[in-house]
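Q: Could you write out the predicted structure for this multi-component system? I'm mainly interested in how the pieces pack against one another.
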Amino acid sequence: MTSRNAEGHAVVVGASLAGLRGAEALRQAGFAGRLTLVGDEPHRPYDRPPLSKAALTGEIAPEATALPNLHALDAEWRLGVAATGLDRQAREVRLADGATLSYDRLLIATGSRARPWSNPTEAGLAGVHTLRGRDDAAALRRALAAGPKRVLIIGAGFIGCEVAASCRALDRTVTLIDPGPAPLARILGQPVGEIVAALHRALGVDLRSRTKVARLEGDASGRVVRAILDDGSEVETDLVVVALGAVRNTEWLSGSGLDDGPGGVLCDEAGYVLDMEGRPDRAIAAAGDVARFPHPLYDGRPVALEHWGHAVAQGEHAGRLLAGAATGAAYAEMPAFWSSQGGVTIKSVGLTEGADAMVFAQGSPKEGRFVVVYGAKGRCIAALSFDSGRWLPAYAEQIAARAPFPPIRVGVDLHGLAVLQPGFPEERTSS
Amino acid sequence: MKAGRLFEAVKDEANRADPYPLYARLRETPVSRQDDGTYVVSTHAAITSLLHDPRISSETLPPSERPRTGNPLSDWIVNPVKDHVTNTHRPFIFRDPPDHDRLRMAVMGQFTHQRVHAMRGRSHDLVADLLDKQSDATSFDLVCDVAYPLPVTVICEMLGVPPEDEPQFHGWATQLASALEPDNLGNEEARAKNITTFDEISTYMRGLIKEKHRHPQDDMLSGMSGESGKDGGAGMGEVDLIATAILLLVAGHETTVNLIANSMLALVRRPHILTRLAGEPDLAPRLIEEMLRYDPPVHFRTRRALSSIDIAGTTIPEGADIVLLLASGNRDPAVFRDPDRFDPDRPDIRHFGFGGGLHYCAGAPLARFEAEAALVALAQRLVHPRLIDDPPPYRSGAALRGPMHLRLAIDGVAPRR
C-alpha cells in the first residue's frame, strides 16, 4: 500500500468533525498524496455540541468553537462550496462553483442539516430559527440577546430540550411543544421521558406534550407572533426554534448509483459505500451522520448515528480504510452520546431501539441521579445515566458482551431491580 | 515462585525496594487468584474496568453480615478490628455511593480556587525555607527535612490545624495509614494501638471542631463544620465530620511525602534529567505525571466483590477481596511503550497514580503543586546531590510505599532564586 499512498488525490466531502478526523487519519496512516477538503460552510471545522448550550447562553462565542487539528494536515480547503454531484465512472466530484475534483479515493462526510419547518412561507418568517451550524447559533444567540420575552420551541428531542434549558438559563419564558407523550420518549422510553419532563417543568419550561403546532403566524412586517396548535389554542411568541431533527445530506449523490436515501448512504461492514446492487465501491467510504452501516452489535441492522464520538471514530476508521491501513475488522464502535440540560448530564451507551424491557439500576430518579439499563430479548442493549456517567463503562462492557438482561443485579447504590416496559411511542425514528 | 503466592511476596518487606518484577509476573494473569482467596488485578485494562464497575465496593461488611472465612485469624481478629475501624470511623475512602458522594462533595466544595491558589504560592515559600535550613549541610535526609514537612504543613494550614499541635499527628497518621495495608491488623498489639489511636485523634478533632464552630476561620475545617450546621443534605454529622477531617489529615501526611521522595530518588539516579529540570522548570508538570506512573505513592487499593464478576478470563466470586494493583497497571506494556523506562517526555500518560473512578484522589491538585514546588527547587538549589544509600531504606507499607529516609550527600545549597 506504500506506493499507492505515495500519490493520488484524496477528496473529503464534508469539512466537519468526521471529515476532519478522517483526513487526519489518512495522513496518519501514511497517505502522502494530494488531500482536499470540501465544505459547504465558509468555516474551518468547528465543534457543534456547544452550539445549543454555552454558545446560546453567551458563555462562549459561537466563533470560539473551532476544532483543534490533532495532527498536522497538509491539505487544500475548498470552503463555502457545496458538492453538487458525484460521477463514479469518471471519479469526479462536482462543486457548486462549476469546478470538478478528480479523486482516487473519496470520503463522504456531508453530515446532516436541520429539518426545516414544513411550511416554507411560515419557515421564512422573521424570528423562526433552526439550529445546526455555527451561523445558526450566532443568529439565534443574537435573537436571544435582543431580549425576546417568549420563546417557542417545536420538538422536544435533544436539541429542543437543550435549547429550552439554555433559554431558561437566560430567563426567557419557554414553551416546548412535542407530539410525543414525553420529551425524548421516542429514544429513551416513556419512564425516562417523564423524568425529562419533570426536569424541564422544574426549570420552568411550559411543556406541552402530545401537542402539535398547526401553523405559525406573522405580523404585517413578516415577524412571527404566534403559533396555532392542533387543539386550536394559540401561543403568543417572539421567537420560534424549530427542532424537528435532522435530514441527511445525500441529495448531491443522486444519480451516482450509490444506495443513498433519506436514511443515509449505505455502507458495508468495512465502511465502503454500496451501489444499488449492493456492490462496494472501494474508492469511496462514508462516515458520520450521513453513513448508514450495519452495526455488528445490533445483528447487522443498518444504522446511521448522529453522535459526536461516532463521527470521530468512524471518520478515523474511514481515513485508515482509504489509506489501505484498516485491519479488516468491521467498524463496531460502541454508540455513545451525551446531552446537558439544566445542569444535568445525560449520557448513554448502546442503542435503545428495539428494547422490550428496562430497569432503573444505580441511584434513584428521586435524587436526580441514576442509571437505566435497556434490554431486548433477554440481552442488555443500552444504558443511560443522569449525572452518573461514571458507571456507564461497566455497562458498555456488558452490552459489548451481549450479557443477559439485567446484567448487574447486585452492586453499589443499587436497590432492587423492577423490570419496566420502555413504552416507546408508536412513531419512532431510527437511532 | 508459585503464581498464587506472588502477592504475598509483594507484601514482603524484602521486595519493597523493587516490587516491579513481581508485578510483571502477576500481569501474566490479569486477574490472579492468590492462595489466601484474594484476587489481584494487575493489568491496565482490568484495573480500568473494575474501577468503574458498580459490583465492587470500598465498604467493609458490618460484623454480623460478614461471612466467616474459616480462618480463625481472619474471623476473630483481623475482620473484627477492620469492622471496628470502619464502623466507628468511616471516612469516604471506605464508603460507597451515595454516602461517599455526599461526603466527598462537601470536601471538594472546600477546595476553593482561592484556597488552592494561595497554598500553591505558599508551598514555594515553604520549600525555600526548608532548603535554607540545609545551607551549611553536607548531607541531609530528604524525607524528614523536605518531603514530609512540606505536605504536612500544607494540609494542616488548609484544614486549620494549629502548627503547635502538628507534631502529635506524626505518629497518629502513620498508625492510621496502616489501615490501608492488608495485613497490618493481624496482631493483637497493632489492633490495640489502632483503636487507641482512633480514640485519641477523634477526641482531639472533636475539640478542634467545637473550637472552629465557636470561632470560624478561613480554613476547611471551619467551612465543613459551618456547613454541617445547615440543613439540606450537604452537611454532615459530627461523626462524619471527624472521620473526614482525619482522612484528609492522614492522606496529607502519608501520600505526597512518597511522591516527592520517590521522585527525588528517580531523579538523583538520573542526574541528566535532574539537570534538565533545573534549567527547564516547565518540564515539571509532565515529569510529575510520569512519576505518578513510574513509581506512584500508592501501589494498590483493596475492594470487595458484591457479586461475582467475570473479567479477563477469571470469575471473581461474590464476597472476594480484590486488590487493584495500580502501580502494576502503570507498568503495563500493553499501554505504555518501554514501561520500565522513566521518560518525562512520554505522551498521553493515563496513569493510576491518583487511583481512578469515583475514589480518584481528592487532593490531586495539592499533590501536584507541592511536588512541583519541591522538585523544581531541589533541582535548582542542591549542588551535586548523591544518594548515600541505594536503595534507600523503605517504610514498611506495601500499599503506601516510599523511602523511610532518603539521605543525600550534597556540595551545598544554592541561595534561593
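A: Regarding packing and overall arrangement: The longest helix of chain A spans residues 308-322.
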